[in-house]
Amino acid sequence: MDIKLILADIDGTLLNTKKEVTPKTREAINTLNQKGIRFGIATGRSPYAVKNLVYEWGIGESTDLILGFNGGSTLDLHTMEMTSAFLLSGKAIPEIHKDFAGFDYNLGIYDMETFHCTKDDARGRGTANSNHFTFILDDLSQYVSSEVNKILLMAEPEEIVKILKRYDEVQPSLYHAFPSGADRLEIINPDISKSKGIAVLCEKYGYTKEQVVTIGDMMNDYEMIRDYVGVAMGNGDQRVKDVAKFVTASNDEDGIALFIERYL
Question: What percentage of the chain has pLDDT greater than the value 90?
Fold first, then answer.
């Protein structure tokens, strides 16, 4: 295989269940540049948060780029240039408030290295702190006439269940929502996916689909696993495994390292 780029999801893929990059996986990633292969992250998280975390994980020097916000933005770690596509219209903010009137939730927007929330609560502050971002209490009205990467809706797990039921009933056209945890929903441009974000990368760098390895585990990785040289983790969703070119070991069994050692 003439591989030029490897993109890995974070949770359930790059990180084990202890939220660590294992020594074997770290060592395998740190050898890729010697083979002329670039390494990057494909995640729903903010690239500004991940750029700090890769150094904590011991792979900062070997990470070339971060595809964040589920394919919406790319941060080149060498030039620190951020490019964005498939942004979410700020008009979704009043739409969300209308669609979920009567429910108890907090909305948050990532803005560079700040996290703006409609409520000052533990979930909002915890999300800001975990990303090493500054928390800002904000009604988000400043974003209504612009575009954002994504919106995070946070609530009690029981409330999220009710909100998802309402979401299925209203079927909005301005935004797409999906759970990324028991107490939160990711709200994004309906046209976005990690696969489409990678397509933008391929056009920029001149890569073909056959030159890009994608590694993931869950359904938000489905399209990128299907559309490129997809590697499903052993702990992954069976639907992801069904469309993958390869299935490797689990995230607790050095699945990324084993794939790199065997095939690259």
Answer: 95
SS (H, E, C) the chain: CCCCEEEECCECCCECCCCCCCHHHHHHHCCCHHHCCEEEEECCCCHHHHHHHHHHCCCHHHCCEEEEHHHCEEEECCCCCEEECCCEECCHHHHHHHHCCCCCCEEEEEECCEEEECCCCHHHHHHHHHCCCEEEECCCHHHCCCEECCEEEECCHHHHHHHHHHHHHHCCCCCEEEEEECCEEEEECCCCCHHHHHHHHHHHHCCCHHHEEEEECCHHHHHHHHHCEEEECCCCCHHHHHHCCEECCCCCCCHHHHHHHHHC
pLDDT tens-place string over residues 197-215: 999 999 999 999 999 999 9
Q: Which residue has the higher pLDDT, 246 or 179?
A: 246
The whole-number average pLDDT for the span 118-139 is 96
Residues 174-212 as b or e (16 or more Cβ within 10 Å = b): bbbbeebeebbbbbbbeebbbbbbbbbbbeeeebeeebb
The pLDDT mean for the chain works out to 96
Instruction: Set out the domains of the chain in order of their start, with CATH numbers.
Output: 5-85+192-263 (3.40.50.1000), 88-188 (3.30.1240.10)
pTM of the model: 0.88
The mean pLDDT of 60-88, rounded to a whole number, is: 95
Q: Which of 4, 41, 14, 2 shows the shortest CA–CA distance to 256?
A: 14
